[in-house]
TrEMBL record:
This is histidine kinase. Keywords: ATP-binding, Kinase, Nucleotide-binding, Phosphoprotein, Transferase, Two-component regulatory system. Its EC number is 2.7.13.3. It is an enzyme of class 2 (transferase). One of its GO terms (cellular component) is membrane. It comes from Dactylosporangium matsuzakiense. It holds the Pfam family HisKA_3. It catalyses: ATP + protein L-histidine = ADP + protein N-phospho-L-histidine. The lineage of its organism: Bacteria, Bacillati, Actinomycetota, Actinomycetes, Micromonosporales. GO terms for molecular function: ATP binding; phosphorelay sensor kinase activity; protein dimerization activity. Residues 265-355 form the Histidine kinase/HSP90-like ATPase domain.
């Protein structure tokens, strides 16, 4: 059956191969341009289907965005155009034409109907799969390019997140503790003035200043907690999550197999990510229990948060889950959401990392 569907793909490939003779025998005719476009688009389509059938990753470079430059000109990343339609066409041709994967697709289209058919008819399927990988799998350079793009994106996200965090801390300090300290200063100077003539009023003002000081301390404590909870620093991720579990309105179980400490920035990221998942379970799940499992298999930390609620978690419907995904991407980690209607919701965070021994807490 599989052999047959792979053989069936050779038919459109042979039909596409009729296009270059059509384009070049009527060179510069009305047929040349459309035949070449159909050839490239058709080879991409067929190569995509073959890749999907054989589980091969996509090797194409992403399409650069069309940018609006000064005075109404469009910049394609390669050249400038005044008219949008020309800019879009130029972008498409430059993007497709400069991508080595396009030429590899065309080379595959030219050779596969013969080589692929012979291999399918005379040998094992794995030989055909190996042949397909030769031209359709991403090259080392393409993989490297993709990795550089991923790292550039995650670095930009990490920098944005860091800037947003600094701004939040600055606002919290400005509107919280700083405002309280200013108020204490004013109340104390009023109390000082009232001390001799109106001691009762001074006493009331001093009590007010003391209450404001406790308020400022509480706000500073909350702020520190929002940056890195002390229990996380002192006792590590599992203890910090157990504490979160105790304070949670649902029944939360924590099962952990961790023999050492994680690097501090990763510990914070996973703690705040798990905290968002617990908040979501309380807000949206309508279930009664949550289970947190933490496992380190030597190379990767895997944290799974499962609730017995109604399901329907979707990263596209809010900022919380998308934020967790970004947070983990900075560590090369991933977030997988499994939440069918009716539940359960299983959210898995995986981050490659090494554990340090319990005594040496660096990694
Ligand atoms: N455990 C869960 N059970 C059921 N639905 C969930 C669960 N977690 C998330 N969802 C759904 O997925 C959506 C996205 O969650 P997300 O955390 O991104 O946003 P949010 O919680 O609505 O808002 P916020 O941006 O404040 O976190 C939620 O609006 C909710 O509908
Ligand atoms: Mg949320």
């Amino acid at each position: 059956m599989r052999r047959l569907s792979l053989l069936a793909l050779k038919v459109p490939a042979v039909l596409l191969l009729a296009l270059p003779p059509l384009a070049f025998t009527h060179l510069y005719s009305a047929l040349t341009f459309p035949s070449l476009v159909a050839l490239v688009a058709g080879s991409r389509g067929l190569a995509r289907t073959s890749r999907r059938l054989q589980g091969i990753e996509t090797p194409y470079a992403p399409r650069p965005p069309l940018q609006q430059a000064h005075l109404g000109w469009y910049f394609t990343g390669y050249d400038y155009h005044r008219r949008r339609v020309l800019a879009v066409l130029s972008l498409w041709f430059n993007w497709i034409g400069r991508d080595p994967a396009t030429w590899r697709d065309l080379a595959w289209l030219g050779t596969d109907p013969l080589v692929g058919t012979v291999l399918l008819l005379t040998s094992r399927l794995d030989r055909h799969a190996r042949w397909t990988r030769v031209l359709l799998a991403p090259t080392g350079t393409a993989r490297l390019g993709e990795r550089v793009r991923e790292l550039t994106d995650s670095r930009a996200e990490a920098l944005d997140a860091q800037a947003a965090e600094l701004e939040r801390i600055e606002r919290d300090l400005h509107d919280g503790a700083q405002a309280r300290l200013v108020a204490i200063g004013l109340t104390l100077s009023l109390a000082q003035r009232a001390l001799r003539e109106r001691p009762d009023e001074a006493d009331a003002l001093l009590s007010e200043a003391r209450a404001t000081a406790s308020d400022a301390v509480r706000q500073l404590r909350d702020l520190v907690h929002g940056i890195r909870p002390p229990v996380l620093t002192e006792r590590g991720l599992v203890a910090a999550l157990e504490l979160l579990a105790l304070e949670h309105p649902l029944r939360v179980g924590v099962a952990a197999q961790l023999t050492g400490r994680l690097p501090a920035p990763l510990e914070s990221a996973v703690y705040f990510a798990a905290s968002e998942l617990l908040t979501n379970a309380a807000k949206h799940a309508r279930g009664s229990t949550v289970e947190i499992r933490i496992v380190h298999n030597g190379e990767t930390l895997v944290v799974t948060v499962t609730d017995d609620g109604i399901g329907g978690a979707d990263t596209a419907n809010g900022t919380g889950l998308a934020g967790v995904r970004k947070r983990l991407r900075a560590f090369d980690g991933t977030l997988t959401v499994g939440s069918p209607p009716g539940g359960p919701t299983v959210i898995t965070m995986e981050v490659p990392c090494a554990l340090s021994s319990p005594r040496t807490s660096t990694c």
